[in-house]
Amino acid sequence: MPSLFQKTPTSLPNITPRTKLCKLPAIRKTHHCKQLFSSLDNLLEELENQKDDSSIPSHPYCAPKCRSRGSLTSSRSLDAETGPRSCTLPRSAGNPSSEILSISHPDNPTAMEPDYSAEDFDPAMPNQECFIKRIQDVTDLASFDNCINEARALGSNQTSITSPRVDSLLSLEKILSELKSLDHENIDEIKTLELFSALYLRLKEEGLTSRYCPHSKLKSKVLRNIYSFVENGTDPVLLEIAHISLALKVKGPNVSSVCKLIFKVTRSAKNDELFLHSDILDLFIESLTTPLEDPEALIYAYGALKFLTMNPTLLQSLLDRGVLQLMVLHLKLVNTAHEDGIQMQEQTSHAIFQLTGTLRHVADAAAHLFVSTGALQELCVTLRLFSGDIDLVANIARTISILSVRKDCASVLLEYGMLPTFIELFNKFPGRSDIVIRLAYSLGNILECSSVARFQLFEEPNAFKVLIGLIASYMQRDFKETQANILRENKQNGDSSQDVMVKLVRVIVNMATEPDVGSRLVCEVNDFDEATYYDRKDECLEFIHILLAILNQKSPSENEEIVVAILTALNNLTFYSIDGPLSKTYLDIAQGLSSLIRSNHVRCLIEVTRVLGNLTRCHHVRQLFLDIGGLAELTRWLSSTNDELLYNATGLLVNLLASQESRLLLKESDNIDKLVLILERRCENNWNLATLICQALWNFASDASDIHSAFGPDKTPRILSALMYLLDEDKFFPSDVREGVVQMEDYQNWDCFAEIAANLLEKLE
């Protein structure tokens, strides 16, 4: 009898949003002081004082439920392209009620200019008297202009003729003067933006936006002026402040301050348009250093990029500017430093956390770039090197689960040794369902498209044991959830234990699709040493008992996904087992299926009939099937309009007809009539089904002394007519095209049918 089950890997659709999970953390808890931002010790306390406390449910596969290193909490629904994003910015430890944007002097003055340096400037300081006192000698703009003019007048006989440069400076003075005269408490957004725009153009015209511009005093003057609008500025005003600051090539702690401004603006999706109409994205990306040099700035920068990449237009714009390649470079630098044993700041890991969160958003729309840019390869290295960082692991697991559906990405994951890494992470974080479910899903995808991966996972020490242990653990958790009536609530808030079990079972299902692996998995082929053989046998039997325990608690109507996954696993395992250790469980499995055979759930019945097709090779199971009323259900299945269910039911009937008791019972039923009807109406171009029908008819009449009397005078002519019609090779494969189709699968299936049908026809004639 041909195999009833065509071994194909079980496929799962991409993980889709199910229900609301927790808020998406955006920025980790770090430590800061006013200017150097070396720590954010009071961050959680500051969050409580944050006025904007809106929250949006995140994508269920976006964030862990809790973070060990608290964060600037930010969230935005991934299901919507626009909408509010909530976040908080750190506040000063000394003044919790005010936001901190520390501004230090931009560039050190060159040696050729007089020293007009000002102390580091903090626009959020409530009392600016000390600052004003320090710079009172250089705040007079006329005096400042005179110094510049005198320096530029050398060699020109110190004439007092006004040059274009002086006119430009006066124009700049006028802009700054008008800005200073504006109401800083109730900001006129339109007027302020007009002046900022004029200021930006004037700075660009004057060459002050050049990287090599020496006028650091003038830059400082501009920065002091525009930063006075920070405290009460609207989002467009704040973004333009950041725009001008970036254009002036600020450095050091000022970059962190600018990144904080941009982060604050990006928290609202309505501000996305502001980034599309200027060169701020170019300036922003250009300003970023590395997580090793300036991790504080990168924490906020990648927090902002994580928001911006939620907008498809902005994402494409960022990709065009090479942001993915930049992130790959940053990952590579950190990975290399870690491998070389270089001591890194704690904030570097926080920056990488934000970076990997941004990559997760990029992966949604640009998965095809992750191999060519080396992004996935570096993520694999990061996951291996930082496998102890649970937050980082959760981020990378999300990204990998998205990428693993692509065959090229699955190949990279296999090449970079992710299978043993996944098993290691299962052991490290067995209780983190968000990590386990994504890694299991990714692992199932890898196994689906690679036979090498199936062998490798089977050979991986303790891999099968770890998977079984996880399934058992989540089974117990699921039973407790069900008893406590909290399953529905869990499904709304995250990954239920049942979801995790589905993905874990799928891993074993896909591993068992490899014939050599499947036969060794059930110990049908024994090439182990004695100790290993008994361990493998015990693990396999334990797995069967776990599957049956779950199946006993679930119904197809309410728990279709887990029921189908378990039935598929039972099918794959019983397919290989004939006389091995697993055969001892056949009756238990058949008994476990007894309640399902009466189901009207077609998908479930397809899998049930596959398993029974394997089990009924055993005489005891055939008898049990008849005892539990299986024959009546078989009659119902043979009337199904579903081709797959009909094929499986016919194969099951072939097995039943191997027993004389079954043949006697079938003579009293109308199943033979159904077979003849199927042969007449359903088998044209369905050669696999036609083959099984002929096998069933052959088995039915195998011990009959008179085959015509066995089928009866009404059925025999119909069978003969149908067989002669289906055996007409010229009708289905004309001679003029036959040469081109003999290698086609359809013709080969017909050829297999023709061999059996011809024998049956000869016996009937």
Characterise this structure.
The protein is an all-alpha fold and about 775 residues long. Among the domains are: about 105-125 and about 140-150 and about 165-280, no CATH class; about 670-765, no CATH class. It is about 60% helix and about 0% strand. The chain is built from 39 helices and 2 strands. Strands 1-2 form a two-stranded antiparallel ribbon. Helix 8 runs parallel beside helix 10 (about 295-310). It starts with about 25 loop residues before the first strand and ends with a helix. Residues about 1-170 have low confidence and may be disordered. InterPro entries: ARM-like, ARM-type_fold, Armadillo, ARMC2. One of its GO terms (biological process) is cilium organization. This is Armadillo repeat-containing protein 2.
